[in-house]
Amino acid sequence: MAGVAYLLMVALLVLPSVVFATQYVVGDDQGWNSGVDYYAWVEGKTFHVGDSLGEHNVIVVGANGYDQCLASPNSGAYYSGNDVLTFVAAGDFYFICEYHCDYSDQKVKVTVN
Fold first, then answer.
1. For a 10 Å CB count at each end of the chain, is N or C smaller?
2. Has residue 61 been placed in a domain?
3. CATH of the domain at 89
4. What pLDDT is attached to residue 57?
5. pLDDT digits (tens, 9 = 90+) for 16-59
């Protein structure tokens, strides 16, 4: 009986985060394109575990890769154009466009609570 109560409690804690999760489109109407101010796009948004981010081709990098616009061989690369990434943990997440990061600053840092 205690096991059932435990499972019910876990479900009650996890379910709201799944139900209330938000799927963001990077850049909203402007999309994931060069020339968009992604610093301004992130401003005022609160990202949570369970939320997701999607749009176009993206490389997942660490802080150094973000600062240097450089993908390492073990960076996560998503090229389908329809990829959606779900945040499964809190922390800082960094995304760059492999082709437009250097010259048009096409990158975004998301802090997940």
1. N
2. yes
3. 2.60.40.420
4. 82
5. 545 589 999 999 999 889 889 999 999 999 999 999 998 778 99
Calpha distance 34→108 (Å, rounded): 12
CB 55 within 8 A of CB 88: no
What is the C-alpha separation between 71 and 77, in angstroms, rounded? 9
Domain that holds residue 86: 21-112
pLDDT band at 82 (very low <50, low <70, confident <90, very high): confident
Give the integer Cα–Cα distance in Å for 17 and 10: 12
Rounded to whole angstroms, what are the CA distances from 63 to 18, 75, 84?
27, 12, 21
SS3 5: helix
In total, the chain counts a number of residues equal to: 113
- Distance CA(112)–CA(90), nearest Å, equals 5
- The answer to whether the predicted template modeling score (pTM) of the entire model surpasses 0.90 is no
The amino acid present at 103, given as its one-letter code, is Y
| 68 three-state secondary structure | helix
Which amino acid is it at 43? Answer: E
